Amino acid sequence: MAKDNDSPLSSIFNEQTISTWIKSLESFIDKSFEHYASFVDHLSFPLDVHETRTEYIATARLDGYDQKQIQIEVLDRALRVIAFATESTKLTNESTSLTSANQSHKRVERLIPLPFELTTEDVTATFQDGLLKIRIKKKLPTSHYIDIQEEE
């Protein structure tokens, strides 16, 4: 009677090589997600949302931006917070009189989904010392009745 590990592949794939292969794959995936996380951090910013009895309060950390570089867009059931900046640098080599100019654009955004439709009247915002605070009034549930017609 042949043992399970007498197959032609058992010399290639044993527990030790499979274990090594799995560890290598796990390491590859972990490193890939580390790079992804650092990439995503550059496209976003810290945002915390908490709820009180009457409103939602969203607090965003936007250091390095000023008030004119921030937009809050009211969507049907969400808010979009966008911050953008343009940076220009110009370097001149005095010995060769060559000038190099660079310009970069940065845009970061976050979406805040909400369980009700919004209007601009429902939202207020303040910005001070790199901290954006958005207050969103809660909407009370409303009900509407429909008249029932007789069929003809």
Automatic annotation (TrEMBL):
UniProt xrefs under CDD domains: ACD_sHsps-like
A Pfam family recorded for this sequence: HSP20
Span of domain SHSP: 38-151
UniProt keyword annotation of Zinc-finger present: no
InterPro entries noted in UniProt: A-crystallin/Hsp20_dom, HSP20-like_chaperone
Source domain of life: Bacteria
Keyword terms: Stress response
Signal sequence range: none
Statement: the UniProt record of this protein carries the keyword Iron-sulfur: no
Family in the record: Belongs to the small heat shock protein (HSP20) family.
Full protein name: Heat shock protein Hsp20
Species name: Fictibacillus macauensis ZFHKF-1
